[in-house]
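no rush on this but wanted to send it before i forget. theres a chain ive been looking at and ive put its sequence and its fold in C-alpha cell form underneath. please have a look and point out which stretches look like helix strand or loop to you. thanks a lot i owe you, the record is right below:
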Amino acid sequence: MPKKARDYHLNEQELAEIETAIRRDKRPEVRQRCTTIHLLHLGHKPAEIAKMQAISIPTVYSYYNRWREAGIEGLATKPRSGRPLKTGEEYWQALEETLEQDPQELGYDCSSWTLERLRLHLEKVTGTSLSMINLHLLLKRLGYRYRRPKYDLSHLQDKGAKAQAEKLLEELKKSPPETLSSSSLWTKRR
C-alpha cells in the first residue's frame, strides 16, 4: 500500500510568518530554510525541492520538522561545540588598534601590514600566538580583505616635468587633429 501524501499546507498566520522571514531575516540559512517550507506549502514534492535547493531529501523533512517544533528560531544554525577561541577581547582590541596604524608608526621599515608581520606584532603585544590561517579567518570575520599594495612612485618623479607633461597633454586634447591632405585616398570611378 503506497504511503499517504503528507499535507504541508500552512494557515494564513504561518504563511505570513514564513514569507516575512524569507524577506526580512538577516540570517541567510533561515531564509533558505523558510523558502524550503514555502515550496512545500505550494505543493512541490520534497524530491523536487531537494533538487532546487541543492540539499538532500531528508534535509527537506528536517527543516519542516524543526520549524514545526520551534518555529523560525528552530531553523537557525545552532552553535557547535569545539575548541574555544584563543583570542579574547584584549586580542580583538589590539588587532583593531594595530590595523588603524601605519606599521612605520610602530617602528617597522614598511608601509603596509602583511599577515605574518601582523601576527608577530600581535604576539609580541598580547602574548597570544595564532596561526596564519586563524589570523586570516579572524580578519575575515572583522570584514577585512587582503589586497595587493599599490606601488606609488610619485615620490621619485620630477614634479615640474610632470606638471609640464600634464599641461601639454591637455593642450593636445583641445587642439583639432592635423590632417595630411584634404582629399580622400578612395575615389569612385566615373
